[in-house]
Each structure stands twice: as C-alpha cells, then as structure tokens.
Write a structure and sequence with these properties.
The structure is a homotetramer.
Chain A: H1 6-31, H2 38-45, H3 49-55, H4 59-78, H5 90-103, H6 107-121, H7 128-154, H8 163-180, H9 189-198
Helix pairs in contact in A: 1-2, 1-4, 1-6, 2-3, 4-6, 5-7, 5-9, 7-8
The first copy, chain A, binds a DNA duplex through α1 and α3.
Chain lengths: ~200, ~200, ~200, ~200
DNA sequence: AATGAATGAGCCTTCATTCAT
DNA sequence: CATGAATGAAGGCTCATTCAT
C-alpha cells in the first residue's frame, strides 16, 4: 500500500513532464528542431523514448509544450521585474535587460527558448499556432524594449533614427550571438554588454 | 560524337564539378550540413543525384571539397584586395571589410563559406581535417583584422582594451548575424555597418 | 475495509473478469483481433489497462479465456433451446435458428463470438488450441443444423443435393454477412431471413 | 552503353509499378488495410521496402493508386462485356455476372479490389477521395445490376419487393462470401451461383 | 558521363507488457 | 486489488549510397 494522495501523484507527474521539457528545451536549442531526435531528448532527460510519448503525443507537441512551459516558468516571473525601475536611465535599463536576459539563474532555459524561437522564425510551413507563438514571443521583446528606445532617443542618450529599425538591429545582434555562441556571455558579461550598447548610444 | 581531346574533357569535368560544388556551398549554407540532402544539391546543380556520386564519394567529401574549392577560388583572390589600401583609416578599412564580406559580387559563395564554417564550428565529432580547416578559416579572419584593430587603437579611432577580445566580440556579432539572419544585409547595408562599428569606435 | 469472506472475494473477482471478458468479446468482434488494443478493452470495461494484466497474462490469453467464457456462458445455455421444438417444420426451425443467432437477447456476445471465430479462421499460425477451438465451434453449428437439413430434404421442404455441401453454402453466406456487415440484421430481420432461406427451400 | 529509348524505360517503370500494385492489391485484400505492412507488399512484390517508396509516397497512396489501377486494368475492360447480351433473360444475366465476377482470368485482382472496397466501406475517417472512390465503385455494381433486377421483376422471374433492397441483400451476400471465404468459388461455381440466385428467383 | 532504380540504416511513433506504488 | 508510469520491439517513412543501364 503506497498511500500517496492525488496531489502528490500530480506533483510527481508534473515534475516528470518538467524534467522532459527541460531536456527538450536544451536539446532543441542546441541542435535545432529538425535535427533533434526524440532519443536525444529522452537521453538528456534520462528516460526511455517510450515515456516521452507517454507524456506528449508528438515531437511537435513536445516543442510547443516545452516552449509554453519555459516561457511561463521563466519569462514572466522574472525577466522584467526590474525593467520598470524609473530610477535609472533608458539606456541603463536596456543594459540591465540585456544583462538579465543572459544571466538569470536558469540561463540554459531562457537562453534555449530564445534560440528555439530563432530557429522557428527561419522555418517555413510553421503550423499556425507556432507562428502565433513565435510572433507573440518576438512581440514580447519588442514591446518591452521599444519604449525604452524611444525614451532614450528623446533624452538624447540613444542615437537618432527609426527606433524600430534600431531595435531590430539590436535584437538581431543579440539573437545572433545566442544562436552562434552562447558561451559568449560566460565571462566579462557586463563589459560585453557595455560594448554592445555602444552601437546605439549617443556619444 | 565529337572527339574531344583530353584537355577539353578535363575542362568539362572540372566545370561539372564546379557546378556541383557551387550548388553545394549554396545549399549547405542555407540549410545547414545535416539538413542538406544530396537531392537538394543535385537539384540546385540541375543534375541527377547519381551524377553527384560520380564526382564525389560521399556527402562529407562534397562538403570538404566544396569548401576547399570555394576558399581557393574566392577568398584569397578577392576578399582582401582593398584591405591594404593605406589611404584610408583602419576603422574605415574595417567597415569596408565588413561591407565587403557581405556584398562582394560573388556573395553567395563567400557568404556561404562563412555560414558553413559557422555551422561546422558548432558540430561535435568533426573529423580532424575539418577541425583544422575551420580553425584555419577562423584564423584567417582574425589575422586579417587584428592589425587593423591595433592600428586603430593606436590612432585613437578604436576604443581601448584587449584588441584580441574586442575583435572576438566583433566577429562573434558578425558571424551571429550571418548564421541567424543572412537577409539582414539586404537593405541599408552601409548604415547597418556604420551602427555595428559604433561598438568599437571611439567617439 | 469491510472484511469480506473468501466467497465474496471470489465472486467479486469473477465479476471483474467477466466484465473484462465481456468487453473483450465486444471489442475483438468489432475490430478484429490484431487491431484490438488492450487499451480499447480496458476502456470498454472501464478499468485501467494495468488491471487487465492483473487478471490475464497476455492479449492472447484474454482472447482465449473470453471465448471460452462466452461459449460456456451463452451458447450451450440458450442458443438451441427452441431448436428441438418438434412442432414446427425443419425449414421453419432453420429460420428460427438463423433469426435467433442474430437477435437473441444477449446478441452482442454470441454474435461477437461468431465474428471472432470468423476472424480466427482466416488467421495463419494459429496456436493449436485455438485451431481446435475454432474447429469445435464450427462443428457445433454444423452438427446442430445438419440433421435439420437432412430432415428437410426428406420432407421435400429443402432442395435435393449433398446436405453437407448445402449447409456449407448456407453457413458461408451467414458468416460472410456477419463478418462483412453486422448491421445487416438491424432492420427487417425476418424478411431477410426469409429471403436467405429461399436459397435452400424447395418451391 | 545501354541505348534504351525513353519508351522502353517508361515501359519498364510502368511494369515495376504494376508489379508492386498487384502485390499491394493481393496483400491489402488478404490482410485488411491497417494490418498490411509495407514490408508485406514489398516482400510479395519481391522488392525492398525502399523501392516501394521510390514509386509511391505513402501507404495510402499505394492503396489508392493500386485500386485505381486495378479498376482501370480489369473492371472496365472485361467485367461487362457480356452483360448487355439481350439474348438471355435478366436472371440469367445476373447469374453470368455473378459467375463472371469471380472467375475472370485475373481473379486475384478483381476479387482483391472487391474485398478492399469492402474493407474501406467499414472504415471511419476515410479521406474524401477514397470515400468517393468507394461510393463510385459501389455505384458501379449497383448501377449495373439494378436494371436487371427491375427487368426481372417485370418479367416475373424475380420475386417482388423493393428492387433496391433486394439488390442490397444480394450484394451483401456476395461481398460477405468474398470477404469471408474467397476459396468458396473454387469448385462447383455454377452450382453455387445457382443456389445463391434462388434467393431472388420466383418459383 | 549520366540517369534513376534499388537497397537498407535510422528516426518517429504505437502499443503490448512489466513494474513501482 | 488497482493505477498508470516505464520500457522496448516493430512498423512507416526518409535519405545516403550503390548499381545497372
């Protein structure tokens, strides 16, 4: 008799799923979606491939659910807690955001989400729900940073020009780095962020 | 049957191979190595997939030979013809290089090589000869630009700091963009290069 | 925990098994043996698939036990209760049998058994015990109806000819219909039986 | 140098496809659609499973193409060449049709088509094109025989009643036999057809 | 040289079966 | 007794590679 109540079981089940989703995010991010094999996710999560299908119905669902989970779990909770700190200048806030996006506790996850979204953006024939997801996710970054760019331009901190285009360039650079060399942020993070923001800072 | 002499045949053969390698570079660059199918290369080259195996023995060999060919054919010949123009400042030369690397006439090839090398760098279990190849290619960019960075620092045009690290950041940004969003360079190229170089330019 | 005595427990256990076997017969009949999934049986029986394996050791055993159970429980008890009614003519008895075989109260079961046996007959590599089972079941129908055919021929009600062959044709037609279109019997059953028996009835 | 012209190659290709389709019809008919494995078709056709996919893109397409091919190849050509023989009575024509449907030269194919259509009819979620195909095929038999039934009723040869329903019963019996016991027709075919048509013949 | 027919290894997914609770 | 988590064998399909023509 193992008298576990329903709550405990649900808890366990949820952890199992999380375990798989965490693995999925990591492996998807590292290898790209097409090249990620279920067996890789299973191995990373230390479960059999069969079990993966016990919790998810398809590779696509794994991807979708994992993204959803990761975003809920990581993004909303923490990503912008400090972004509305009106004590500091817009440019400073942008730096903090940049810094933060790559240094939060569970870097692997949020980093992974970023890279996966990258990967998705360049994919054709994306199913509608993923298209929306990607757009939403993209919007998220844009909507968060756009006001700061405009504000910075008004205060003379940020160079003139089409704010949206400027933001586009900045985000392309960031996502490019993440896709290309995630280890980039390991050392001297603040200094590197400083250099990156020089792109847009007025002298 | 027009009796062609050996030279003509060799010529023809070489053209055929070049045709395939050109296609390979393009398709490898666009899709990544693993995701590139022989049939895609064959289609791009407008030959049957069987013929591809007439000239090359395996997918890996196509890759290797195509890279070699592309580098020999394009890189050394043209990439730096203007880089030693001592009329312009180091920073300007860096801009020109950046611009050039993405806009030269045969962009597709050199750009492709760049992206393929990107792709290779993130691959594990690379056979030794490719490892060396990748390293050599990386070295090439570094060796070409490093002097310009130092020179720029000396002349006060480029911000202080470890020149090698600065160059590393700059190249990471560039390669990230290419891996991530090659279309980035389509419009307003000069303006974008201008913004990118702001990262390293002293005010 | 209400302390139940052994008998009650046995009773309960038996009911559980019956519940599963009833479900199995139904699902096997509807979907065929190979296409029946354990999960379908479990769902039909409203138990978990794990429990199915608590009572049976394999899919094959479920099939075998269910058939045995169904035959014992239903066939002998009821199928021919009226067949020896000597008030009516042999042809009439054949009609009643035909009618009965598809319309008796617990149609689902006996009908199901019929269809499963159909299914088994067309299977190769049947284990020996099932071969015998199928043969025995076939024999059952033959032995029951054969005397009626002979009797009918003697009384001039049924057309002349090899009684066994005639019966074979009749049973092939019946079993074909059941295998092919069980819904056939839904409407106008008596009329349809009337038409079918015209095959063998002397005018 | 194997100077085969295009025609020869096309011919060969067509034969290969036909070889696979013939095998497909046989295996699909014997095992049902779901239970038919590509490997079974490949084995029957004596080719590798890979080659099957060289000619067809999916199991479904194999099914669809094979049915189309079989119908074109066999049905139209021969099935009704004699059906419009106005020398003989409607009932006789029905007998001839029945006989013919099971004894034409390439029995395996036309028989197979019949069984596969049977199988399809009882399938849910059939893709639209197959639904139409099945209906069309069903219509074919109905449209061919229906006039004969009506004619026979008018001439008093066939029993009264809803001609459509009568035909339905007759076809259900036929298709049931084919699904259930194709070997039924091996011996004494004419006699058996005679008995079957007694169902509908007036005395 | 050139084509495309042919093969088989490998990945996604399903499902019978076993096991921990 | 009961549940559902966990495993792995097997089948559909893709694609690199080989081969006949």
């Amino acid at each position: 008799m193992a008298p576990q109540n329903k709550e405990q079981l649900d808890q366990k089940k949820h952890e199992r799923k999380a375990q798989i989703m965490r693995a999925a995010i990591k492996v998807f991010a590292e290898n790209g979606i097409k090249l990620t094999k279920i067996s890789m996710i299973a191995k990373e999560a230390k479960v059999s491939h069969g079990l993966v299908y016990h919790y998810f119905t398809s590779k696509d669902e794994i991807l979708y659910a994992s993204l959803d989970w990761a975003v809920e779990e990581h993004k909303s909770a923490k990503l912008f807690q400090e972004l509305n700190d009106h004590e500091v200048s817009p440019l400073e806030q942008i730096k903090q955001f940049t810094l933060f996006a790559f240094t939060e506790s569970d870097t692997e996850i949020s980093n992974g989400v970023f890279r996966i979204i990258q990967n998705l953006s360049s994919t054709n024939d994306l199913p509608e729900h993923l298209v929306q997801f990607v757009e939403k996710a993209g919007q998220f970054y844009i909507e968060s940073l756009y006001p700061l760019f405009v504000e910075g331009q008004n205060s003379g901190e940020i160079i003139k020009g089409d704010a949206e285009e400027l933001l586009g360039i900045y985000l392309t650079v960031l996502s490019g780095i993440m896709a290309d060399d995630p280890a980039f942020w390991k050392d001297n993070t603040e200094q590197k962020v400083g250099i990156l923001t020089r792109m847009i800072s007025e002298r």
